[in-house]
Amino acid sequence: MNLSCLLCYQASPAPVCQWCESDLFFFNDDIHGNNLLKFGPVGRHVTHRHYHSLSILSLHTWPMSSLIHQFKFNHSLAAGKMLNKWFVDKKQHCTLSVPDLLLPVPISAWRLAKRHYNQAGVMAEFIGKDLGIPCLHQWAIRTGASSQHQLSKSQRKKNAEHAFALTPYALNDVIAQKSDKFVVAIVDDVVTTGVTVDRLSRLLVQRFPQVTIQVWAMTFTPPPKSTLYQST
């Protein structure tokens, strides 16, 4: 089978060739720590009142953003599998409390009908299968159809206030089986302001105050003039 790299289009036995992979930036425990909320260039720019830790694979800059786009909008499962493989192989989840459950960020019914899949749900399934962590899809719903990625920070915050709701049972059944602390990881493809995952976390802790919440994402969009752009 003739395969080509998703980034440079040269012949490659893997979806991304070794030369392109070697040029990519990945967050590293030894440099950035295992909780990016404590790493200033990230933690200062994301809302995080209701979740406890943040684990991100890379920056949402080219060429990583190209892989996200191919997976999200072009139905490229090869790109999605590559991103999830890197997350499992390179990320710091093993140095944090291992979650009992993965919770993908929901998308609207309209967007699901148009796209035919929830990219966060597919990511959570891939990661959960590799790490042996169950994934729960029907824990929350998106009540609005508007997308966050084209909104300003203030608009995102206002939009997120009424954009999500927990389902009637949410985590009831799985938490009932645990007598001690319960850890979940909310999974998303891109974190920009953190408003979406913080809003979902707030809904969770309001109903389940015993839950410890991690956020796992593939990429972080740095604000303009961020020092992180020097890393790419």
Architecture overview:
With 232 residues, the protein is an alpha/beta fold. The chain has one domain (26-231): Rossmann fold, CATH 3.40.50. It is 37% helix and 16% strand. The protein has ten helices and six strands; from the N terminus they run αααβααβααβαβαβαβ. It has a four-stranded parallel sheet with strand order 1-6-5-2, sandwiched between helices. Strand 5 (182-191), helix 10 (195-207) and strand 6 form a beta-alpha-beta unit. The longest helix is centred in the middle third of the chain and has 14 residues, at 77-90.
Secondary structure layout plus pairing:
Elements lengths: L17 H6 L5 H4 L7 H4 L9 E7 L4 H10 L3 H14 L10 E4 L4 H7 L3 H13 L8 E3 L10 H9 L2 E3 L5 H5 L5 E10 L3 H13 L3 E10 L12
Q: What is the number of strand segments? A: 6
Mean pLDDT: 89
CATH-defined topology: Rossmann fold
- The total count of helices amounts to 10
From the N-terminal CA to the C-terminal CA, the straight-line distance is: 32 Å
What is the 3D shape?
Answer: globular
Strand order of the largest sheet: 1-6-5-2
Largest β-sheet summary = 4 strands, parallel
> SSE order in H/E notation?
HHHEHHEHHEHEHEHE
CATH class: Alpha Beta
